[in-house]
Amino acid sequence: MNIKEPFKWILYKLGDLHSYPMLKRIWLAGAFLFLVLVIVVADVIPERIAVEEGAVSDRDIIAPRTVSYVNEEKTKKLESEVLEGVADVYDMDVAVLLKSEDQVNGIFNALQNVVNTKDFSTMLPDEQAVLKHKALSDAISIGVNKNTVNFLIYADMNSVENVRVSTITFLRKYLQRGIHADEISLVKKHLAIDLESAPLNQEEKEAAEDLLKNALKPNMILNEKETENRKQAAIANVEPVRETIRKGQVLARHGDVITNQQIVMMEKVGLYRGQVSVSRFVGLLIFILIVVAIMAAYLYKLEKNVYRDDKKIILLALIILIALSLGKLAYYSYYLAGPVAAGALLAAILVNPRVGLIVSVVLAMLYGIIVEYDLRAVAFTLVGSMAGVYSVTKMAHGYSLTKTGLLIGAANFIIIYSMGMLMQIDDYQLLTQGITGAIGGLAAAIITTGLLPYLEHAFSITTPIKLLELGQSNQPLMQRLLLEAPGTYHHSVLIGNLAEAAADKIGADPVVVRVGAYYHDIGKIKRPYFFVENQFGVDNPHSKLSPTLSTLIITSHVKDGLDLCHEYKLPKVISDIVAQHHGTLLASFFYKKASETEHGECVLEKDFRYEGPKPQTKEAALIMIADACEAAVRSIGKPNVSRVEAMVRKVIRERLNDGQFDECDLTLKNLTIIGDVYIRILSGMFHSRIEYPDSVKEIERKKDKDGNSIRELSAGSSSDGSNGGNREESLK
């Protein structure tokens, strides 16, 4: 069974919802969106992986997409390190200094007050000692040791004053500098060393040291609010530690003992216990809807014929799905996605290049999702696809899919290399990627070549490539035409060149016109010698036939041509031209002959007309006009520009008046342009020979004596043209 037949049947069934056009469109749109989601965002719903820390992995676990995330553990560690560098904020408590000074001064003032009493000097030493001891009760209560108390009681007042001054001096020194709670013990340990510089004897130094130890208190108070503010500010300046898991990265290998870090990584890519990001899924769905809506709006506004054709809509949807599937194969490296351009190529060839452009944009945007929104991938796909679409527009001028593949490959190489230079990628790696991208361009052309015949057949589309193949002279039917009806073959080639020249001028397809002209008279293969261009020196068989039978034979070449179209499986666009190139024209020569020979019997005009239909397209009309004009101009005895112009205008006018152009979209302006082109070309093809001046004729007469007359040579070369032309016109 032909593999193309079930493929075509499935596609037909997909679109077979004729009873409800709107429902059909909704169904198609829904199916398309679903399939795009399956291809593009399948990794949003990951496979469920249930593993625990410490378990042994039973497979290689691969990251399905690229994810950047904040490593909480490392970020907290970094924050802790930063906090350690933030010093606590302390405020100095001035009251501590004042209180400590008051305490020290209070001891010495109490002692001085005793000494200053009027009876103190007359008292016995023991009595003085008792009073001093009593005055120092406060000092004793705060922990001043016994030696210091004895020193204050028994030392002379000058020595006591020296101790007071030194104690107050060092007290202010320490407290004005500030003492933190955690350093008070260290300060007290260093008192003896610091007092070495004081102008005191050893006993005085010991007393001063003891008094300072009791008077010194921490005076730096922690400002908790300001400290916290500074810590928060420091944390705010800490950049979170971001890590990236690359698509395709191995998270755990078969046999690995699963660690907590691996579980975290699986959570981040959505693999752990089948986690699904609903917001991600919804966002991607909205994005895809927007992309599809843009394409639909483009087709509705600029390509209405495509928008209204369900078959072409299904074709475009299928092409996009195929291209995205090819892109999915290049999941891990965007520069492997060269074959995605095959989608744009297929759209440009099977529909038209303008549709190919919008498909290029859609594929680039959707492929950007597949590769995790990589701008390089979008640019790569877009440039390669558009290069392919551009080359398709040149196929009528000799471009082939091989050249298209080379052009896409060159575009891919350039865009990869330029972006790689911007990103400062290693030269060797850059060259490797560029060559890979170039090979991808060739792969796109190969894939297009492979898929094209199936899509052409399934959707009954004739592409320029197919037409160009049919236009080759080595085609079987062209070979038959050349061998069995050589005159018709050369006539068809001439008509093709003539009609093609006018096609571009009026917006017709030049490839369809040229190839259609090559095949328009293939029906003459069945009875070639009944047509004047194939009658090489033989009697005209129509001279022995009735006008009615001759008309039947002449007009049947259209039906015979359609039979050959079916036999050789020629595309519909060609068979339509075969059927329409004579429209419903009247075989006027035989009609007039019948009218003259039927002796008054009723001759119906409809019996002498072609069955039609009339030309439905510009292309068929161009071939009809070219066919008639070429035969008519050939019949002119001595053609010149004015005669050629008159004949061409007459042919066009007669067919216009006969209503042959009523069913195609030719305008009067188009007909004028066609006439101008045909007149210019036919005037050059069928010009009369040069008229020689009298001096030349005299020379010729002299040469006649030797049998070398130029006139005879010239006449001999053109003597078999006019009669054939007249006969051809009659048979057309």
UniProtKB/TrEMBL annotation:
Chain intervals for the UniProt region annotation (Disordered): 700-732
Compositional bias ranges of the Basic and acidic residues kind: 700-709
Pfam families reported for this sequence: 7TM-7TMR_HD, 7TMR-HDED, HD
Name of the protein this chain belongs to: HDIG domain-containing protein
Alphabetically ordered keywords of this record: Membrane, Transmembrane, Transmembrane helix
Transmembrane region(s): 281-301, 313-334, 340-366, 373-392, 404-423, 435-455
Family annotation (InterPro entries): HD/PDEase_dom, HD_domain, HDIG_dom, Metal-dep_PHydrolase_7TM_extra, Metal-dep_PHydrolase_7TM_intra, PgpH_phosphodiesterase
Domain HD/PDEase: 484-641
